[in-house]
Amino acid sequence: MAIELRQQLKLTQQLIMTPQLQMAIKLLQLSRLELMDAIRQELEENPTLEESQETLSRDVLSQEEPVQLPEAEKPKEITIDEKIPSDIDWSNYMDDYGSASRARLETEDRDSPQYEAFISHKESLSDHLLWQLLMAGPSPEEKDIGSLIIGNLDKDGYLQTTLEELAQQASVTVEDIEEVLFLLQSFDPIGVCARDLTECLLLQAKALGLQDTLVTKIIQEHLNHLENKNYKAICRALKVSLEEVIAAVDIITGMEPKPGRQYSEDEPQYITPDIYVYKTEDDFAIVINDDGLPKLKVNSFYKQAITRDKEVGGNARNYIQDKLRSAAWLIRSIHQRQKTIYKVMESILKYQRDFFDKGIAHLKPMVLRDVAEDIGMHESTISRVTTNKYAHTPQGIFELKYFFNSSIKRVHGEAIASASVQEKIRRMIEAEDSRKPLSDSKMAEMLKAENIDIARRTVAKYREMMGVLPSSKRKRYS
């Protein structure tokens, strides 16, 4: 059999995404902050793209003809002969002035720096402890050891290494490490630099003057019973009454198990909604949030250079044409993105109107396919639109994905959304008697009485998702 090379024509079809479609999909899945970063980057890289300034120039303003007022409506000229009346109520004047100031603040540009931008850097736990160490006047060796210990604390203030390892790193004895550690454990916050929870609570009990009491005995010997609220076992082991145990437990539960928590360096995350839903009498209004997004336009100079200036040719003309095309695609893609978000929110409002009117308990089960079929788009597009997009509603701020959830069957009637069931469970737990908390089985029975068919294990799963302890650990004896 001979092997030979041969040319052959073959006609095939394949789906290729155009650059414009790629850009539209990319912008669609970006969050608001990511979109602003992408626009700023394109403004820096594309000379044909510029930000529109929606203000009148001085030349335009100067060309306006002055408005001629009738003699009767002309303002009266103020002369220095006029005197201030003596019966002016200055308190009302100050109130009016303050109101005017508040009005000016409310009408400030939303793009101006926020208050949080002027807050100084929050002091960390390490900085706080190092400052106290320096105020104690340590020797150079104690300062080095103290810095080493502070550097091995976790965010909750616990020591994450052994004294032997610290002594080896600092080339000192374990006794030297213990001496400096004892000093650091007396610093604020009380309980810091502990090696475990027991030591942390004992340090706080010592600061309260409760050494060698029932409180310290429970901390040292019966933390496991305390965690499970097995107070009767503590009573039998320590031969004390239940009232004494409850009084000691109240003191322990008032202690801080994570002393470094107040110095957490986690910064709050502020959410700017992508879309607003307002209640207007008997209807709702949807408004896209365009505040902060630059208003883009194509630079007219480069458009004229391509159409009129015949001297521009070769690589320069190709470069300008590519940049003009990229700028037009970006502007069109941003408009398409905002239009798509509006359509999705409009469809969600149609399906979840009871939620916007009455609250979370009235949320209906809904999937991506419902909205996709309603507005004539693919489910993947709806998924991109609802990712990292937030809506400000009369019930609060929610991610668009929040409105899509699974359904729970009812004994009779249509299904109910899982989020609504979680809300019902949360309200049951809030209204329960703390001395007789509701078990998962009891809540499942109460939900069935409300025509919601749900298993006990599903109730337990929802309870754990909300971060709620089981009934045995929610029980209180006082």
Explained architecture:
Among the domains are: 127-261, Arc Repressor Mutant, subunit A, CATH 1.10.10; 275-403, no CATH class; 407-474, Arc Repressor Mutant, subunit A. Helices cover 50% and strands 6% of the residues. The protein has helices at residues 19-28, 32-45, 58-63, 90-106, 125-135, 140-151, 163-170, 174-184, 197-207, 214-221, 223-227, 231-238, 242-253, 300-307, 315-351, 353-358, 368-375, 379-386, 418-431, 440-449, 456-465, 471-474, and strands at residues 49-51, 275-280, 283-288, 296-298, 390-393, 396-399, 407-408, 416-417. Helix 9 (197-207) runs antiparallel to helix 10 and helix 17 packs across helix 18 (379-386). Residues 55-70 and 72-110 have low confidence and may be disordered. A 4-stranded mixed sheet has the order 3-2-5-6, covered by helices on one side. It has a two-stranded antiparallel ribbon with strand order 1-4. The chain has a two-stranded antiparallel sheet with strand order 7-8. It is extended and about 95 Å long. It has 22 helices and 8 strands. 18% of the residues are buried. The chain is α+β, with helices and mostly antiparallel strands and 478 residues long.
